[in-house]
Amino acid sequence: MPRAPEFLHSVFMRENPTFRQKDRSTSPAVDVRELQQFYGTYEAVRGVSFTVARGELFALLGTNGAGKTTTLEVMEGYRAPGAGTVRVLGLDPYRDGPQVRRRIGVMLQEGGFFPELTVRETVDCWRGFISGARRTREVLDQVDLAGRAGVRVGQLSGGERRRLDLALAVLNGPELLFLDEPTTGMDPEARRNTWRLVEELRANGTTVVLTTHYLEEAQQLADRVAIMTRGRIAAAGTVADVLSGRGATITFRVPAGLRADDLPALPAPGGAPALTGGDQGVPRTATYAVDRTGPALAALHRWAAGRDVELDGIEVRTASLEDVFLALAEEGGTARAEQTEQAGRKAGIR
């Protein structure tokens, strides 16, 4: 018989968890204060603080080496804090591990399965370790795997394996669910279905902590986000809070016969536009970066009316979470960011 995967083996070794009704307490589901984590002399997490309210979906984002996975592992109870405090459902997740694990679900980046078992047998196996676990058919229906129940795990696609990971994570009806890159490997339809499932869980009172590299996923789902760079939180709040003040861009095709000097300069920070195209029949395009779109558009339309030209193909694009994420990563300095990431990989940080 093959050796049990590490995470499954840990289930054998822990006391049998019992199903509990969701705690209606108003205290935070997660409370992280001045968390620090070290790998030798390397400081991977540098004084991070945040809370996750009960019933909300909180997205923890960051580049590779930013410290988000280490932070997540401390919250899940896999690591003791190097300094600072972490409370999950009012408990210390490392010291009070058995009590915490009864009440949470964890979907890791990569689960360990026996490829010879079918999907149904895998879920049934896990149900044997969970008192009061939900029925196998119910959970497989929820993650859209009921039609694959008799298929061996080794024959599943990558996206189907992720859905099986999710099924096992919600098997105990958790109060708090940790999702680490939940839609990696899924096709667009499966991703949308997973989003719908996560939204249903949240609507039913489950608190969700999400990490993802799909920033549109966080923007679509999260009540609040925190973006980590180099071990610190660089931005946090609602998506609207994080995007506030990040401005927008206004783009249009430059009318034929006009030179760059003919285009208007908008009030700071808009200034002169950036020009692209103009070669080999490609229309020239002007792009302005602006803080406030209303006054900028009014100024452009006044200029166009005075010149008797049309603003052809005009497009206004507000900042996205991806724009903010990339800007924060760049603000850290390319050389320093690369050095930090290399040190993080050497220390085993994802």
Describe the structure.
It is a single chain. With 350 residues, the protein is of the alpha/beta class. It folds into 2 domains: 30-243, P-loop containing nucleotide triphosphate hydrolases (Rossmann fold, 3-Layer(aba) Sandwich); 248-318. 33% of the residues lie in helices and 23% in strands. The protein contains 12 helices and 13 strands. The strands form 3 sheets. A 6-stranded mixed sheet has the order 5-6-7-3-8-9, with helices on both faces. It has a 4-stranded antiparallel sheet with strand order 11-12-10-13. The two termini are 31 Å apart. This is ABC-2 type transport system ATP-binding protein. Keywords: Antibiotic resistance, ATP-binding, Nucleotide-binding, Transport. It is a peripheral membrane protein. Residues 30-255 form the ABC transporter domain.
SS summary, helix count:
12
Which geometry do the CA atoms define? elongated
Low-confidence stretches: 1-22, 333-337
Structural class of the helix and strand makeup? alpha/beta
Helicity level: 25-40%
> CATH-wise, what's the superfamily of the largest domain?
P-loop containing nucleotide triphosphate hydrolases
The CATH topology of the largest domain corresponds to: Rossmann fold
**What Rg do the Cα atoms give?**
25 Å
On the 0-100 scale, what is the average pLDDT? 85
Largest β sheet strand count, sense and barrel closure = 6 strands, mixed
Give the tally of β-strands: 13
For the record, the CATH architecture of the largest domain stands as 3-Layer(aba) Sandwich
Give the CA-CA distance, first to last residue: 31 Å
**Which percent range describes the beta-strand content?**
15-25%
Q: Which CATH class of the largest domain applies here?
A: Alpha Beta
**How many structural domains?**
2
Q: Strand arrangement, largest sheet?
A: 5-6-7-3-8-9
Order of helices and strands: HEEEHEHEHHHEHEHEEHEEEHEHH
